[in-house]
Amino acid sequence: MTHSGLPVIIQGGMGAGVSDWVLARAVSKAGHLGVVSGTALDAILARRLQIGDIGGHMRRALGNFPIPDVAQRILDRYFVPGGKPTDKPFKSKPMPTEKPSQHLEELLVAANFVEVFLAKEGHDGLVGINFLEKIQTPNLPSFYGAMLAGVSFVLMGAGIPRAVPGILDKLAQGQPVELRLDIQDAERGEEFVTTFDPDSFCGGKAQKLDRPDFLAIVSSSTLATMLARKASGKVNGFVVEAPTAGGHNAPPRGKLQLSVEGEPIYGDRDEADLEAINSLGLPFWLAGSAAEPERVTAALELGAAGVQVGTAFAFCEESGLGTEIKAHTLAMSQQGRAKVFTDPVASPTGFPFKVLQMKDTHSDTETYENRTRICDLGYLRHAYKKPNGKLGWRCPSEPIKDYLRKGGKIEDTKGRKCVCNGLMANIDLGQIQKGDQLEKPLITSGDDVAHVARFLKPGASTYKAIDVIEYLLPENMTTTFGDPETCDAVSKDATTSIPRG
Q1: Cα 447 versus chain centre, distance
Q2: Exposure string over 62-84, b if 16+ CB within 10 A, otherwise e
Q3: To 5 degrees, how large is the angle CA 469–CA 460–CA 291?
């Protein structure tokens, strides 16, 4: 089966703000699918504005938001001309809940619009956005904001996104939508939902929008088959992710077994049945240590449309990772010291989470233990039913006494780390907590980080997104969409460093 008109390379939607608009724009301009991460974009927009909106990009994008009053309210609340003092904390934003305030809903819609708008600006390439199914409550307004900006693809993993295709259908028509929430301690058959109404948000003037294609991120043919046949709307394809991919991984099938080092052990049962996935007749891309030309060729020969590549792009100039983190990682890779640990307990989600091992980050036990527990972003909190029937929120990474008071179990708190604050620190937007404690990074990466220095040209200390693309696609292998002349031009000027602000 051929997949004419589809990208060979999908750039992974990594972390919070790592796959930002600058990176996605560079990849899209080169004729492939650039993807922005949809995780925590409300916090990212608020903090970019508070450091002064370097380059003016946030304000330019907000100036194109279709509801000017919403954009102005956000600017009034968060924009600090010249930037806040570096020793002062960021102003907080509302925590995600099943019933977001008007301000939080506006911030979510606008933030997703801004990221996609900037990624699409100045070219006609395709742009996607990646979400985690586990982070449920922000997703409805986030989808809508991305669609307002004309996003071409929505990608989602870390769960079973069965309801999402139908939600995209309704949002495109301007219809109200709801999403059933996963609630701990709820009675069997009891339902709790979060809702979003485009018409109400737009003051009764919601317009019909293009429905983006939906790509489900899966690790098994069983899940792919179920989604293809039983999802609420059309699934347009799959990203088939192997355990070597960065971020959250699907847990091993069967009883969890750990290696001597303490990592989950994956076996033959965890290898996706690609023949079964291919038989579904939908395009699919292979992910996980796929950043080699022979892996691209092999994927195409197996019937895939191409590959998704994350780690290789995560450490290029255009990614949102902090400059020092990228430099240190590339140096470790050159020296043969870059490695990740698949931590079975670090993430509050309960999913295995790949963590790059680096001093002065929360991969280091001493650094982690010196952190004062706090949950002030709340994206990975769990919803639970309280005795009075209302919803409460708890996180295994919050202060232990708070978690236990809310009915949580002590064993759930062991080894849990604050992924939310760590990811913000990764992109130089870390919070200053009480006692002037600056949040430390918690860097996620795929196994391929060990060899990421291969993209460095002789004598260079950094590389660009186009270097990854040219490495993966030799001259005799062309993209399936995009203008070759545009791709040539992009290698010269489209990857120039742009302040993110």
Answers
A1: 18
A2: beebebeebbebbbeebbeeeeb
A3: 25
Identify the CA nearest to 310 among candidates 277, 265, 340: 340
Q: Are 468 and 474 in contact (CB under 8 A)?
A: no
Is residue 432 a part of any domain in this protein?
no
Q: How many domains does the chain have?
A: 1
Integer CA distances (angstroms), 425 to 51, 95, 177, 202, 320, in order = 14, 18, 33, 34, 11
Give the H/E segment covering residue 29: helix 21-29
Q: Are 135 and 247 in contact (CB under 8 A)?
A: no
Report pLDDT for 247. 73
pLDDT tens-place string over residues 172-222: 999 999 999 999 999 988 999 999 999 999 999 899 999 999 999 999 999
Distance (Å, rounded) from C-alpha 90 to C-alpha 433?
Answer: 9
Q: Does the structure show a pLDDT above 90 at 4?
A: no
pLDDT by residue (tens digit) across 361-416? Answer: 999 888 989 999 999 999 999 999 999 999 999 999 999 999 999 999 999 999 99
Assess if residue 401 is contained within a domain.
no
pLDDT band with cut points at 50, 70 and 90 for residue 290: confident
Angle among Cα 55, 145, 213 to the nearest 5 degrees reads 115
* pLDDT for 484 beyond 60: no
Report the distance separating Cα 72 and Cα 66, nearest Å: 11
Question: Does 400 fall in a domain?
Answer: no
Range of the domain at 208: 9-322+455-494
Eight-class DSSP state of 490? I
**490 pLDDT exceeds 50?**
no
In a domain, 68, yes or no: yes
Distance CA 326, CA 428 (A): 12
Residues 258-297, buried b or exposed e (16+ Cβ, 10 A)?
A: eeeeebbebeeebebebeebbebebbbbbbbbbbbeebbe
What is the CATH classification number for the domain harbouring 63?
A: 3.20.20
